[in-house]
Amino acid sequence: MLFNSLNFALFFLLIFILYWFITNKSLKLQNLLLLVSSYVFYAFWDWRFLFLLVFSTLLDYYSGIKISNAKSENAKRFWFWLSISINLGFLGIFKYYNFFVTSFADLFLNFGYALNPKTLNVILPVGISFYTFHGLSYIIDIYKGKIKSEKKFVEYGVFVSFFPLLVAGPIERATHLLPQIKQKRIFDYEKAVNGLRQILWGLFKKIVIADTCSIFVDDIFQNYSNYSGGTLILGAVLFSFQIYCDFSGYSDIAIGVAKLLGIDLITNFKTPYFSRNIADFWRRWHISLSSWFRDYVYIPLGGSQVSLVKSIRNIFIIFVLSGFWHGANWTFLFWGILNALYFIPSFLRKKNRKYLRDNHNFQQDILSKINEFRDIFVTFTLTTFAWIFFRSKSLLDAFSYIKGIFKLDSLFTIQSAKMYELSIRPLFFYLGVFLIIEWYYKNDDIVFEKFYNTRSSTFLKYIFYLFAIISILFSIKNQAASFIYFQF
Question: Among 319, 337, 338, 459, which residue carries the largest CB count within 10 Å?
Fold first, then answer.
């Protein structure tokens, strides 16, 4: 059941009516409705994996209570490692087993030994990386004494499987989401309207930009050997916008849907393509995952408070893990390593925290503005180059694609079979509108926040609503396109 489908619209309309008009007098009934609807939502993908979600939830719920009630450190440690091991074990079996087995066999083949490894013929349970990280953070926080275990299963179950964020995040923390689940929620008209606006913006990014980009991106990446260097550059740039608008579009819809239910989710993106360096980019891109690795891996390893060699080691660990989290493929690992190599120079020059509290507050002089735009362009170029490995099916394809870019005789030539069939000009127009809007609201957590709260801009609001709705209707396909991050 996709956010950008009619099925979800009808499903959510039913939940909304039951939530605010039938169960609104009882918090227990509201939470029970959220839990049941979340399981129904997940069962639409594949009902067989619903049992895995329920088992994982029960495991962490029970382990959390046992850790909190443990009389000895050994008992506490036992339940902690039991939960961690089983959760990571499921993730390893479903997501990484085949990768390790085939990679091990390939290694032996290089030495002349042919192995016949047994692989698993199973599909990856949708959302397993996300809900596993929900459970892991919960157990770790209890073990470290940051939170108490939740005694009510329904409330904990909603935290893990809340359907707006279940299959592609944001990755929430118990410290932020559980208190909202436990307290009575009253319908807030302004919050609901803001939620609808964010849903509209998310649908615009997904359907109008990401899905349109995918038409040209798929053609170029699948047939890269037939195209000019200029076309390959265009394909890489369009994929940068595709993956951002696809994933951030999902996050916007998830956050908007949650607001309609009276719940606030964390911000997952803050205009990352206007970052001034790679460190700034990773503070703005997939924030919930970046902060998860920072808090549960990087800092426990010592972060930057250890020797220089160990600090660099820690940087490589979190970026490699981030790449591996995305999928069992050497392309993702290389993407993670490449980002670590991007990050280290700013770390060594102590500029990785340069923009920690500084927004895009341009100085008055022209030189400062030029330098800032230069930094944005360089960061975007490096990020786009890394996305080539993320999008390619194999490292060989990625390096061949990059080699094709530097065909000097065709570097400034752009041609694509899809461009002959479909005009790319509307896409350039929409990208222009998108970039202008993102730039104008680059310092805000939520795009349009100031715009919506300004009474004098009522006419402009409705002009945008009309423009976004018409653009979505003209861009929508016969079948709703899936979101890229569902495969992770």
Answer: 319
272: preceding bond cis by omega (within 30 degrees): no
- Residue of 134, 176, 286, 326 marked catalytic: 326
Answer whether 475's CB lies under 8 Å from 207's CB: yes
The whole-number pLDDT of residue 245 equals 95
Angle at 101 between CA 95 and CA 103, to 5 degrees: 100
Catalytic status, residue 134: no
Question: How many CA atoms within 13 Å lie on the side-chain side of 255?
Answer: 26
DSSP string, 270-317: S-GGG-SSHHHHHHHSSHHHHHHHIIIIITTTTTTSS-HHHHHHHHHH
- For the chain, the distance separating the N- and C-terminal CA atoms, rounded to the nearest angstrom, is 17
Integer CA distances (angstroms), 220 to 237, 379, 463, in order: 11, 23, 35
What pLDDT score was predicted for residue 123?
A: 76
Rounded average pLDDT over 128-154: 93
Structure token digits, residue 292: 């998860």
The residue assigned the tokens 């495991």 is 59
